User: Which sequence fits this backbone?
């Protein structure tokens, strides 16, 4: 039978269906003069939030102090932006609003699921322009249709897309400047990370470890988009670390270790500090005997060469899905350059960030049954899925005692503030043959619905807990610390809280109408401080709070300020 060819015509750009056509509305050129030096000295312009964590150090600390412990009770909504939930792959059970809003001199740049980017007036919430990337319907996504944010520099906005592209947009119009592919969607690779601009590089990491891919970091020239280097996070045979993988077969080639959370950077060491993800398959360790470097590790990467200078593995031979992708917070103590990392496995690691030397290890969650790590770094596995078809229960579950959502550090109080998830899970090993782009978990997993609790816990650099604000549900969103001695933290049930950074006392609360799974930021325009938080429950909720899979899925950005 002959089928006559039918011309389907031109696809409609969804970004043109909102009345906001890229180029039709123009943002002021506030990003034109944002360069490496300004980002390096972000703390000197606290009115802006120039990069993902606010600064290269990853502290998620705002030096703004207009909103204080005394007046925060007067905080009110200033404006709301409704993003909507349209999109082919943005079903109610998959998408989540996970971004960290970037603000430059009164203009906010915000990323959403499904390839959306918006430029907004940071005072009124008025939309200036929007961009919509055409993401294929059949992209393999492990853990939700999400995007954690954008980077800005030299007049451009940088983002990744679910189908593993990295883009540069004109910051004034939203028009695409360049578009590069850095992952193979046919193999199960994707991208969710917020890019990081360092020097003249745009640095991004890959996602897709649950599909048996080999993780990597990539750097692109900021101006041209030309690829500069790739750093694989699983060594191939013959490279340092390859002895931690089976000598025969291709376990290393599908070993995981994806870098799907933004790294931090120290200009003095010239090192990028990045956490790597789980090995693949997640739970079936028998097919990948050994420690499986550089999975579940903190790696220090020379930002010019793209080479690993040192590493520290938090969970050798992981069979619990304990990615070490959590942020690496840079701080100093007694003149020593240190790094703090709260790992999914339930332990707080402090390392010397120049050498990778271990300084301290302490637990930060009550229930840890998978194993134990001694203060001198000895890891002992106790409970894990090692027999086919036999269920094994352990704490924390695969989402971790803290998921990707970020802790914060205040140099005023010298305390770390961590969102804790005290949730267990049962894994039953189910061996599967590897097939490209098919989930490669190696087990069936059921996360506990009962006895799931959480907290915002404050720790000093020694790992001593100073206070704990308890919650009936796990805390599944990033926290924000400010110079007003406040800690802002959102709950899965929609409440947005302000806590006293020194005592943990709850000082203010607002119900946002949907659960929090994002990263709030703070900024100032015309002398008025704002706190912005995206709300939109979803993503991999079955992994960290399955009891709320049916909760309302919002998609709004709420911005708060003191009354004028």
Assistant:
């Amino acid at each position: 039978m002959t089928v006559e060819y039918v011309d389907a015509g031109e696809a409609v750009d969804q970004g043109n269906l909102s009345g906001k056509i890229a180029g039709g509305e123009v943002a002021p050129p506030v990003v034109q003069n944002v360069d490496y030096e300004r980002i390096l000295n972000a703390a000197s312009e606290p009115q802006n939030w120039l990069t993902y964590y606010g600064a290269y150090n990853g502290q998620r600390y705002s030096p703004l102090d207009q909103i204080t412990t005394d007046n925060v009770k007067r905080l009110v909504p200033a404006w709301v932006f409704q993003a909507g939930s349209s999109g082919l792959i943005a079903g109610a059970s998959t998408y989540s609003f996970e971004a960290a809003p970037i603000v430059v001199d009164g203009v906010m740049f915000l990323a959403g699921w499904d390839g959306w980017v918006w430029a907004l007036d940071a005072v009124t919430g008025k939309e200036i322009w929007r961009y919509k990337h055409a993401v294929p319907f059949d992209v393999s996504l492990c853990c939700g249709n999400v995007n954690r944010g954008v980077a800005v520099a030299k007049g451009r906005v940088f983002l990744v897309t679910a189908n593993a592209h990295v883009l540069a947009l004109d910051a004034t119009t939203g028009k695409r400047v360049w578009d590069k592919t850095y992952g193979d969607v046919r193999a199960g690779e994707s991208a969710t990370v917020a890019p990081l601009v360092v020097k003249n590089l745009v640095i991004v990491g890959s996602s897709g470890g649950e599909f048996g891919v080999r993780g990597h970091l990539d750097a692109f020239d900021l101006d041209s988009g030309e690829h500069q280097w790739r750093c694989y996070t699983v060594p191939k045979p013959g490279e340092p670390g390859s002895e931690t993988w089976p000598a025969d077969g291709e376990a290393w080639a599908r070993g995981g270790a994806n870098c799907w959370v933004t790294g931090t950077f120290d200009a003095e060491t010239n090192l990028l500090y990045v956490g790597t993800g789980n090995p693949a398959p997640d739970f079936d360790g028998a097919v990948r005997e050994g420690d499986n470097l550089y999975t579940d590790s903190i790696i220090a990467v020379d930002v010019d060469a793209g080479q690993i200078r040192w590493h520290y593995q938090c969970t050798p031979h992981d069979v619990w899905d304990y990615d070490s992708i959590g942020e690496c917070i840079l701080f100093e103590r007694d003149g020593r350059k240190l790094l703090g990392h709260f790992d999914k496995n339930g332990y707080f690691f402090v390392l010397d960030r120049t050498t990778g030397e271990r300084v301290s290890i302490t637990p930060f969650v009550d229930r840890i049954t998978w194993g134990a790590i001694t203060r001198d770094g000895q890891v002992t596995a106790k409970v894990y899925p090692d027999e086919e078809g036999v269920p094994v229960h352990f704490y924390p579950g695969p989402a971790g005692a803290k998921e990707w959502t970020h802790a914060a550090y205040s140099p005023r109080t010298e305390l770390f503030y961590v969102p804790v998830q005290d949730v267990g899970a049962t894994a039953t090993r189910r061996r599967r043959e590897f097939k490209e782009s098919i989930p490669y978990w190696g087990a069936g997993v059921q996360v506990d619905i009962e006895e799931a609790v959480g907290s915002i816990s404050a720790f000093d650099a020694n790992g001593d807990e100073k206070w704990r604000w308890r919650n009936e549900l796990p805390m599944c969103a990033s926290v924000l610390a400010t110079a007003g001695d406040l800690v802002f933290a959102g709950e899965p049930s929609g409440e947005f809280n302000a806590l006293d950074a020194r005592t943990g006392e709850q000082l203010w609360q607002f119900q946002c109408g949907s659960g929090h799974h994002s990263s709030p930021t703070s900024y100032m325009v015309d002398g008025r401080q704002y706190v912005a938080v995206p709300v939109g429950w979803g993503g991999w909720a079955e992994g960290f709070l399955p009891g709320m899979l049916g909760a309302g899925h919002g998609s709004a950005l709420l911005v708060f300020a003191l009354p004028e």
